[in-house]
Design brief:
- This protein is an alpha+beta fold.
- It folds into 2 domains: 120 residues, Electron Transport, Fmn-binding Protein, Chain A (Pnp Oxidase, Chain A, Roll); 100 residues, predicted glycosyltransferase like domains (Thrombin, subunit H), CATH 2.40.10.
- The protein is 16% helix and 48% strand.
- It has 3 helices and 13 strands.
- The strands form 2 sheets. A 6-stranded antiparallel beta barrel has the order 1-2-3-6-5-4.
- A hairpin with a 5-residue loop joins strand 5 and strand 6.
- The radius of gyration is 21 Å and the shape is elongated.
- The two termini are 39 Å apart.
Length: 227
């Protein structure tokens, strides 16, 4: 009797958690081939039937390349998606491919997950990164690297930035190009914690609230790449 009650609670919790990911949301799938090669691809979450299956759109074939041959029945897949809302979070689960279908469009059918994890981005610790970006300061653009990232700010390094004259609280824009053909991510913030270095300039950025959605998406991408 106790075991049955536990199963019911677990199923209810899984349904409740998965329902936080809305149909049409962007997700990232992570595939590891039998040879140990890892591929990460963006696609769209379609929906699910409780206890039965989860549906996601087949990723763009042109971007899948040789990985397309591994999207077959029984293949393990990790799915991550951003939960929209005031308290941004990443939802993640591991599943296996049940089958793929061609109509009405190319769709991947996944087994319903046994566990679903949720990581609250707003309570996440700062993540070490190596993200190439452009920084717009006044009317000039500088090549930079984001060396760590959190929901509230980041650390930037600008090589050959010795001649830059910056001040605390100065507003800047950070542009991160999307290598997968999507829209570039643009973040706005103010400078803090300036540090002159031998090979350039290092400083912190406090993000403006107007960039909340973009920051959450960038954190999702970063977590996906690093895991």
């Amino acid at each position: 009797m106790t075991e049955k009650a536990t199963n019911i609670e677990t199923a209810t919790r899984l349904n409740r958690n998965l329902s936080l990911l809305h149909a049409g949301s962007m997700v990232t799938i992570d595939i590891i081939t039998p040879a140990g090669q890892r591929g990460k691809f963006r696609t769209t979450f379609i929906g699910y039937l409780p206890k039965k299956y989860v549906l996601i759109q087949f990723p763009d074939t042109n971007k899948l390349g040789k990985f397309s041959q591994h999207i077959t029945q029984g293949m393990g897949v990790t799915v991550r998606g951003l939960i929209e809302g005031h308290e941004g979070a990443v939802l993640a689960f591991v599943s296996t491919i049940k089958q793929t279908i061609q109509m009405p469009s190319r769709i991947i059918v996944l087994d319903f997950p046994r566990t679903i994890g949720i990581q609250n981005l707003r309570s996440s610790i700062r993540i070490d990164t190596h993200i190439h970006a452009k920084v717009k300061i006044d009317q000039d653009y500088w090549q930079a690297t984001i060396t760590n990232l959190s929901i509230s700010g980041c650390q930037l390094n600008i090589e050959n930035g010795e001649k830059l004259v910056l001040s605390e609280k100065k507003l800047i824009e950070i542009i991160i190009e999307d290598n997968q053909g999507g829209n570039n991510i643009k973040l706005n913030g103010s400078i803090c914690n300036l540090k002159q270095q031998a090979d350039g300039l290092s400083f912190g950025i406090k993000f403006n609230s107007v960039s909340d959605n973009e920051i959450s998406q960038l954190l999702l991408n970063t977590i996906t790449v690093q895991d």
